[in-house]
Design goal:
Largest interface: A-B, 212 and 211 residues
CATH architecture of the largest domain in chain A: 3-Layer(aba) Sandwich
CATH superfamily of the largest domain in chain A: Type I PLP-dependent aspartate aminotransferase-like (Major domain)
Radius of gyration of chain A: 26 Å
Strand order of the largest sheet of chain A: 1-7-6-5-4-2-3
CATH class of the largest domain in chain A: Alpha Beta
Number of helices of chain C: 3
Helix content of chain C: 10-25%
CATH topology of chain C: OB fold (Dihydrolipoamide Acetyltransferase, E2P)
Strand order of the largest sheet of chain C: 1-2-3-9-8-5
CATH class of chain C: Mainly Beta
Number of domains of chain C: 1
Number of helices of chain A: 17
Number of strands of chain A: 12
Chains: A alpha/beta, B alpha/beta, C alpha+beta
Helix content of chain A: 25-40%
Structural class of chain C: alpha+beta
Number of domains of chain A: 2
CATH superfamily of chain C: RNA polymerase II/Efflux pump adaptor protein, barrel-sandwich hybrid domain
Largest sheet of chain C: 6 strands, antiparallel
Oligomer: heterotrimer
Largest sheet of chain A: 7 strands, mixed
CATH architecture of chain C: Beta Barrel
Distance between the termini of chain A: 46 Å
Shape of chain C: globular
Structural class of chain A: alpha/beta
Strand content of chain A: 5-15%
Distance between the termini of chain C: 20 Å
Chain lengths: ~525, ~450, ~130
């Protein structure tokens, strides 16, 4: 492959390039507009009469003044400066970048869903409530735990719910525990959540096989420990076979066992966190359940819990009532409704957000579960694990393995971690450089520098929706980049070459933050 | 093989061969037999796309949405018109399908959108620092409470009873975790009682939480309430409805430290409560404790302007247990809708929309309160929502009669404010024309007559 | 700062902090190895004058773009002066870690604590 020349900027391309980076504010011209207000059809009372002057805005918000064509062109062009999943392979470990089925946008846009107000009378939202209840049941079955709340809006929101539920559980038993255990391989949201919930983080070590160091756990598990937060498979992509013993130790000191569901894609229909002994599980609907990532959200983080945790679930819960409720409940007797939002939950931790949660996300995830069914979901996990092991086998070949060895040489689950430390030593390029050079080959790099336990980590998750050919090609690309680096490490060190911008100065952005346009 | 996987038998054989195992089953050998699910998941079988569509359509048909009735229901989310260009832009896969922009070189689109969004929110709120979104309104209030706690560590938070019940409850739920107590400041004549606030303030108050306009639609005297709070050094948090900020003095101009709010009305659908987005803006001094993603401008190695996620050391992936928040995935796509919507309204349009709402709301309040038996719950200035009382009748039954007539009359305040058991909260958007307001008044009058006359309520089919 | 350097005359703590003792006071900072590991420093928030520091405990944090590191006190004492200039030019910690990148000056409370520290040779040896 020839090395692309460093970009030169003759005058004409400088103008074109500059136009591409104009902000919507820089395109603004006084007097332009897109919105046309409806004609005033009520008395034109003076504003002063309706709103005392001291409450009125004096300096207008400097929003842009642009027409619809400009808005469309501006944001359309911006979209073209984004790499996305529909365009190319996106093996971002821990993120489960699987295909987003296109049916889902159609059903989410049905007016009965899209224009439904969250406070609509339950009798007139039975379709939505039934959908939510069905989704709860399905997620509960997948997790192996009976009670589900759809309220949390993201994985870390679900984690917060889980730790607050744990707190409520212990406090209800008259106990004031102070610590939560997390493995040193945990995703950053785990310890951050623990602090927000008012507990102290205590780290548990990882053994040579990549699993929890059971002896370290045993030493640290005492009656000050409220909870152990784990994911299985771990962030190393490895299933911890000691999970039953881990559960026994944790339950033995009366603590709860929390499952971070980020890695659920490996085990659906194969094993269930509830059966492993977990008390609380969160799901990332934007991972295994295909909610599009949106460039950083929206997502949803529903939780499934065991019987003993159920009383503390957030309010309201979607509940199914057979037929009309008895009059002694104090509720109005109405005909025929079956699904209600149950607010009467005296031990509930309360609310984590407004209304019921990200319903639009539920619609998509529910459509996915109904599309795949029991067999389809199991196949998802089988192929996710097959694809990951296949890609790993390709990357264990000569030419790659000596520079990017797998951190734990075992059968992996749906993802695996390579270490770029030998590559750094032998070839003089870092994991970061490899990632930047991958951009020139039209693939999104894997997750880099996570988990922290592995030096120069590269966490790769292909998912089940990729073809064998895509995996073959990715392995070839990695091999090519390494060959290139052996000949000339400068190529990767100065990559990428084909992107709109290259090696942005992040230090400057942190030292002198400019986070809005001055206007 | 499902629609979304492509591993044929031939593919599988080749892959298993390369791995060096005989079957997929061997790949799960690490899972102890006792933990293996020995039956299929108890879920229905998968369905073809058109079958799934029909099923979802049937479910949706049993919802009465704003498409099916004239809706005056607000109380935190509102039936505004979402312009078509938002549907077009949000369906672009380059916005819909990528992840958070961890590789900035290939995410300049998304990062610039965040930068433009942060600018718009900063302008709207009058505060210099905005993040790239949080989940939604009430949890944004909770996040602001956490910031106050990280900043001054004081034990008490005072929240006006005019703050949305979901926000007050979310704040209390979170505060119980990190160890603050939340006390309520009562209302007087429909607005936050300044004297009661002053009486409750002391130097162990971490934050004071207000809402503008309040849950009852009142335009609060934020400046006066803020000044009182500042005297004891408390952080002031104001939850704002963004569209009225076009005509209301913004919180940044009134000394407020943190402005948060529900972004649904900015280009997002009702969607039965989500997804939408929350905005979060603050005074400069709080920048390093802000939660969430923040995009920042910089230059690249060739001197070109570009954008990156910045101040990441606040965040969970770096700071872990000392992070300012645990937030990872936020609401980027919904914030995109927000910034496009604000560009679509534009500088003039936002003001015009606000003035239209102000006048139509005044008209609606006057018209309804001209009906015998309907009184204003308060006489405070309102901009897009107001509360009335209908004493001496069963308000639930009245609302049911109106629903049968194809009108959602609004939010029954008794659901969360027992002291206003006969109260109704009525919301106005630009979609609620004078004709529809007149129709509401007419139907309300008829419903009251029918209630007093003892006519039977129509049973909803 | 291009080349590794560990001046003689300073005492070193294994957590990559140095102390320069001058009678009853000492100046603290982080070593070349520490700044090299961090990368370009973007933020340093000094502690308050008057704060107590204890040997082996963190008294401040230093941030690069992608990392945060605790700064460990090599000796115990009371902070009498901080390098306020680092707020504007934190990169001095990289460019001149033993000079312009100094962090705090401390009035020592226990002179014998210096026995626990290493000289330049020993510190470099244990870097490995």
């Amino acid at each position: 492959m020839t090395v692309p020349a460093a970009p030169t900027t003759p005058a004409s391309s400088a103008i074109a390039a500059a136009d591409d980076t104009l902000t919507i504010y820089e395109r603004s011209q006084p007097g332009r507009r897109a919105f046309v207000a409806p004609a005033l059809d009520v008395p034109e009372r003076p504003l002063d009469e309706l709103l005392p002057a001291r409450f009125r805005r004096t300096r207008p918000a400097q929003l842009p003044e642009v027409s619809e064509p400009e808005l469309v062109r501006h944001y359309h062009r911006l979209s073209k400066r984004n790499f996305d999943l529909d365009t190319g392979f996106y093996p971002l470990g821990s993120c489960t970048m699987k295909h987003n089925p296109k049916l889902h946008e159609r059903v989410a846009a049905l007016p009965g869903n899209a224009r439904l107000h969250p406070l609509q009378d339950e009798r007139r939202a039975q379709g939505a409530l039934e959908l939510m209840w069905n989704l709860q049941e399905a997620l509960g079955e997948i997790a192996g735990l009976p009670h589900v709340s759809l309220q949390p809006s993201a994985g870390s929101h679900g984690e917060l719910a889980g730790v607050l539920l744990t707190r409520a559980y212990h406090e209800d038993r008259g106990e004031q525990r102070t610590k939560v255990l997390t493995p040193d391989t945990a995703h950053g949201t785990n310890p951050a959540t623990v602090t927000m919930a008012g507990y102290e983080v205590v780290k548990v070590g990882t053994n040579a096989d990549g699993g929890v160091d059971v002896e370290d756990l045993r030493a640290k598990a005492d009656e000050q420990v409220a909870c152990l937060m784990l994911t299985n498979p771990s962030t190393l992509g490895l299933f911890d076979p000691n999970i039953a013993e881990i559960a026994e130790i944790v339950h033995g000191v009366g603590a709860t066992l929390y499952y971070d569901g980020a890695n659920l894609n490996a085990i659906m229909g194969i094993t269930r966190p509830g059966d492993m002994g977990f008390d609380i599980v969160h799901f990332n609907l934007h991972k295994s359940f295909t909610q599009p990532h949106g460039g950083g959200g929206p997502g949803a983080g529903p939780i499934a819990v065991s019987e003993r945790i159920e009383p503390y679930l957030p309010r309201p819960q979607v509940v199914r009532r057979e037929g009309a409720p008895p009059a002694s409940d104090g509720e109005p007797v109405v005909a025929g409704y079956a699904f209600v939002l149950d607010e009467d939950r005296p031990k509930s931790i309360g609310k984590l957000r407004g209304f019921q949660g990200n319903y639009g996300v539920f619609v998509r995830s529910y459509a996915y579960i109904r599309s795949l069914g029991a067999e389809g979901l199991r196949e998802v996990s089988e192929v996710a694990v097959l694809n990951a092991n296949y890609l790993l086998a390709l990357l264990k070949r000569k030419g790659v393995a000596e520079y990017l060895p797998v951190a734990y040489d075992r059968i992996c689950m749906h993802e695996f971690v390579l270490s770029g430390a030998p590559m750094k030593r032998e070839l003089g390029i870092r994991t970061l450089d490899l990632a930047k050079r991958l951009l020139d080959f039209g693939v999104h790099p894997p997750t880099v520098y996570f988990p922290l336990l592995v030096d120069e980590a590269l966490l790769i998750e292909p998912t089940e929706t990729e073809t064998k050919e895509t995996l073959d090609r990715f392995a070839e690309i990695v091999a090519e980049i390494l060959r290139e680096a052996a000949a000339d490490p400068e190529i990767a060190r100065n990559a990428p070459y084909s992107t709109p911008v290259r090696r942005l100065d992040e230090a400057r952005a942190a030292k002198q933050p400019v986070i809005r346009q001055p206007l | 093989m499902t629609t979304y996987t492509s591993a044929t038998d031939a593919d599988r054989r080749a892959m298993l061969d390369a791995i060096g195992v005989m079957s997929i089953e061997e790949l799960f050998a690490d899972i102890p037999g006792a933990l293996r699910l020995d039956r299929p998941l108890a879920l229905p079988s998968g369905m073809a796309e058109q079958e799934v569509y029909e099923h979802l359509k049937e479910l949706a048909s049993r919802n009465v949405s704003a498409e099916d009735e004239i809706s005056f229901l607000g109380a935190g989310m509102y039936d505004h018109y979402v312009p078509s260009l938002i549907d077009t832009l949000l369906s672009r896969s380059e916005f819909l399908t990528p992840y958070t922009p961890y590789q900035p070189e290939i995410s300049q689109g998304g990062l610039q959108v965040m930068f433009e969004y942060q600018t718009a929110i900063s302008e709207l709120t009058g505060l210099p620092v905005s993040n790239a979104s949080v989940y939604e309104g009430p949890s944004a209030v909770g996040a602001a409470g956490y910031l106050a706690k990280l900043t001054n560590g004081k034990p008490r938070v005072l929240a006006s009873r005019g703050v949305h019940p979901h926000s007050r409850e979310t704040l209390a739920t979170l505060a119980r975790g990190y160890g603050q107590t939340v006390e309520e400041v009562p209302l007087k004549d429909g607005a936050t009682d300044l004297d009661a606030l002053v009486a409750a303030l002391s130097d162990d108050v971490s934050a004071v939480v207000l809402q503008q306009p309040s849950f009852l639609g009142t335009v609060e005297d934020v400046a006066a309430l803020t000044a009182a709070a500042k005297k004891v050094g408390a952080i002031v948090i104001c939850a704002c409805d963004p569209i009225p900020l076009g005509i209301l003095e913004p919180p940044g101009a009134q000394g407020v430290d943190i402005a948060v709010g529900e972004g649904q009305t900015l280009g997002n659908r009702l969607d039965y409560g989500g997804p939408s987005f929350g905005f979060f803006a603050a005074a400069q001094e709080h920048i390093r404790k802000m939660p969430g993603r923040i995009a920042g401008e910089t230059v690249d190695v060739d001197g070109k302007r570009g954008y990156v996620l910045t101040l990441q050391t606040r965040e969970q992936h770096i700071r872990r247990e000392k992070a300012t928040s645990n937030i990872c995935t936020a609401q980027a796509l919904n914030a995109l809708a927000g910034v496009v919507y604000l560009g679509w309204l534009g500088r003039q349009g936002l003001v015009e929309l606000g003035e239209l709402l102000l006048r139509r709301t005044a008209y609606a309040r006057a018209t309804l309160c001209a009906i015998e038996g309907v009184e204003p719950l308060h006489e405070q200035p309102v901009v897009r929502e107001f509360a009335v009382r209908i004493p001496g009748v069963d308000v639930d039954a009245v609302v049911e009669r109106l629903a049968a007539a194809g009108i959602n009359a609004g939010y029954r305040l008794g659901r969360t404010y027992p002291e206003y058991a006969d109260g109704l909260l009525v919301a106005i958007t630009e979609r609620r024309t004078r004709a529809q307001i007149d129709r509401l008044a007419e139907a309300l009058e008829q419903a009251l007559a029918a209630e007093r006359g003892g006519a039977p309520t129509e049973v909803l089919a | 700062m291009a080349d590794a350097s560990y001046p003689e005359g300073l005492l070193y703590h294994p957590e990559h902090d140095w102390a320069q003792i001058d009678g009853e006071t000492a100046t603290f900072g982080i070593t070349w190895f520490a700044q090299d590991s961090l990368g370009e420093v973007v933020f340093f928030d000094p502690p308050d004058v008057g704060a107590q520091v204890r040997q082996g405990e963190s008294y401040a944090e230093v941030e690069s773009v992608k990392a945060v590191s605790d700064v460990i006190a090599p000796l115990s004492g009371e902070i009498v002066e901080v390098n306020a200039g680092l707020a504007d030019t934190p990169e001095q910690i990289n460019d001149d870690p033993y000079g312009g990148g100094w962090m705090v000056k401390v009035k020592l409370t226990d002179a014998s604590e210096r026995e626990a520290l290493m000289d330049a040779a020993a510190y470099q040896a244990q870097l490995g």
